[in-house]
Amino acid sequence: MDIGIVDLSRLQFAMTVMYHFLFVPLTLGLSIIVAIMETVYVMTNRPIWRQMTKFWATLFGINFVLGVATGITMEFQFGMNWSYYSHYVGDIFGAPLAIEGLMAFFMEATFVGLMFFGWDKLSPVKHMVVTWLVAIGSNFSALWILIANGWMQNPVGAAFNPLTMRMEMTSFFDVVFNPVAQAKFVHTVSAGYVTAAVFVMGVSAWYMLKGRHFELARRSIAVAAAFGLASALSVVILGDESGYETTHNQKMKLAAMEAMWDTEPAPASFTLFGIPDQEARETKYAVHIPWAMGLIGTRSLTGQIEGINQLVEGSEERIKKGIIAYDDLLKIREAKGDVSPEVKAQFEENVGDLGYAYLLMRYVDDPRTATQEQIEQAANDTVPTVWPIFWSFRIMVALGFSFIAVMAYFFFISNWRGMRYPRWALHAAVWIIPTPWIAAELGWFTAEFGRQPWTVDGVLPTALSVSHLSVGDLLITLAGFVALYTVLFIIEMGLMIKFIKKGPYQDVELTQDWQQRHEDRLSGRSSSVTMPAE
């Protein structure tokens, strides 16, 4: 087994995913914000809200198109770079992705054209419905993709067939309502909502600092602050739910996130700061918050969170059971299923640990011939590299709490200080625009890197999932993807900056006339400006 091919395949997929995810959060959140703004327009018939809707929809459209362009190639990679993975679990993993394409993507593609070109062809209410359908389609897309990803984290509703050597779906209901998938979905879309809220707030703050588009900017900040505050609170609350599910389904990932080397007496403490040392299996200069991790992970004062060393010992036992299952598997395949009831019963008893036997294939072709030393090596392989997960998680959490503070401040100013934002706060809003993307990328890194060495947790090791490619093939395609995606990212940034500088260019006269009339009415003056009929 060439580990270099595995590492290059992982690097290529990680690069394409993380590039793609630069576009996804803004699409998820901005679609909802645009729909909210248009709803206000339909309810009030104020042209300023129509102008806001069109302006932010333009930025949404740029991001949406480039997000689609970067996302399409990823599904092809499952066949190109991860062919054994596709063969082994394609019956389950492929179903949510197919539904995502047939339901969510087609829904988005159908209505996004009406959203941009139907302003003069649809009534305001019908156009608002179309905009909401685009937003719902975008979020449906995330739902089905995260159902597929959630199954990789917690493979429920499926069973291994020894005759076909594939995982087969046993319950579509269990796959769809997988608690890990549902927790990931709500946490991920909430993070996308925060990303869009920070983006809208930052761009609007820049307009106010430049003295441009004042009415659009201050209303946009008010919407973003309210939407962002609710979303930021949701991210933290729903992130807690994700942590709770991880305690039950991915114990090693949780232990690595916490750098918890040994099981602590319940309730376990949370390590606020420390420097994990994987070789010594200790965390130096650790600063602990008593009880916090036990409460987060188990929601009790008595539940234990297992440490890495104890989980490695448990992995050794599972590898030994997996070897028994592997031996029975070969007997079943050789006899084409016609084996004694005792062999079948023994296989069924241990098949849940078969994936652990596959970990040995990094060291030996036949797991049954593995030595105790090789079993110990494979058990140690179940520990991901701790320090990147440890710090990624903490930076993500710190940013999450900072978003709550920022949104709460702007929400307070918007509602109780007449939208009179201090200049220092507007400058801060501009500077923090990149931070939600940093938090989102760190979150995905924690989730996916923390799952290693598994592609499907406890079922299929990453080292067995790759296609039979050469290092040259992977280096050429990796370079090609980096070049293409970098160009697309530059195009995205260029178009975004161009249209932000251009500002709201649609319905300008209509909005200005309405604004003048509105100001005259507030000041008690009569106005000669006549509002155009709509």
UniProtKB/TrEMBL annotation:
Coiled-coil annotated residue ranges, if any: none
Organism superkingdom: Bacteria
Transmembrane segments: 17-43, 55-72, 92-117, 129-147, 185-209, 221-239, 389-412, 424-447, 467-491
GO cellular component: cytochrome complex; plasma membrane
One BP term from GO: aerobic electron transport chain
Subcellular location: Cell inner membrane
Family under the similarity heading: Belongs to the cytochrome ubiquinol oxidase subunit 1 family.
Keywords: Cell inner membrane, Cell membrane, Electron transport, Heme, Iron, Membrane, Metal-binding, Transmembrane, Transmembrane helix, Transport
Membrane topology of this protein: Multi-pass membrane protein
Molecular function via GO: electron transfer activity; heme binding; metal ion binding; oxidoreductase activity, acting on diphenols and related substances as donors, oxygen as acceptor
Chief location of this protein within or outside the cell: membrane
Protein name per UniProt: Cytochrome BD oxidase subunit I
